[in-house]
Amino acid sequence: MTRPIKATIDLxxxxxxxxxxxxxxxxxRIWSVIKANAYGHGLLRVAQGLxxxxxxxxxxxxxxxxxxxxxxxxxxxxxLEGCYAADELPLFAEHLLTPTIHSLEQVLMLQxxxxxxxxxxxxxxxxxxxxxGLNADQVQPALSALAASKQVAGVTLMTHYAxxxxxRGIAAQLASFEAMRAGLAERHPASPANSAALLAFPEHGGxxxxxxxxxxxxxxxxxMHSAAALGLKPVMTLESELIAVREIAPxxxxxxxxxxxxxxxxxxxxxxxxxxxxxxxxxPTGTPVQVCGRPTRTLGRVSMDKLCVDLTGxxxxxxxxxxxxxGGDGQTGLSADLVAGxxxxxxxxxxxxLASRVPVTER
Length: 363
Ligand SMILES: *Cc1c(COP(=O)(O)O)cnc(C)c1O
Prior knowledge:
six-stranded antiparallel barrel, alpha/beta, binds pyridoxal-5'-phosphate, 11 helices
């Protein structure tokens, strides 16, 4: 017997969600963002799943980008943080990768590198998030220096929205980005939008969009719009089984710290899934879960390998009963956004945290 926890990746749902991105993107082209092992879904699996429809792939990890090339992917590949040292840049040229240049230090690295061919680059502008990107006064000098270096073959301007998922929106950053673009000697293509901007702000601008989370079927702003309402289908399903069932008396406590105290006699189940599988330890009593397809709640603290669930009203649930942690069918399933919300985090973090000990299959 193997431990019953497993994750399933639904590639048809992935392609469906890419189609939703395509509809929103219109004539714009789409970088499918597959950083962090495709948000925990498997880099090559997701790239393969999207191979027929992706205009390009965007990620953070240079090793991942090279692995995509070695696996035969020929689409453009964008590295969202670019390089960390000048000696990586020849690999960009060798494998035809597009670096982001987000700082003057990276401009210097590019000037210093010896490349087998000039590189297309994404020049990142700081439009107000104050994380990565050049400020307005640095952009034209950087462009001039890059042009003089003869190491660059085409510049796209990008920025990243800090509030596309909130009431604040994108107006101020879009205006700042467009003002910076307008001040330049040449007009360059642009790429400002992530999932939230693509879905919520049709005016987000640009020629290439960069959806990530929506491809995986979760909402970038679950408090405003559920994934289902956005027409997205869950891609990752995390399931396990009950490995023990017990009756507890009123006043008995459950799990580390006894964080749940039974107010009445009740039946509880123990699920083979804990934080070492990627389930969030912060999930408190009451986090939604399904047993035998019936909605119920977690009880007490999540431990490394186990969590406890309330079996009240689920008389048929014995050892071996199926437990859905998140995912499943969009209609009858359990949204990762709801689990994440209960745990005080976002679906992104749940997906990325899926542990390597959880076996993953595709369907
Ligand atoms: C991760 C990332 C994205 C994708 O963001 P989502 O919210 O997942 O759509 C887009 N652009 C950049 C620069 C990123 O780092």
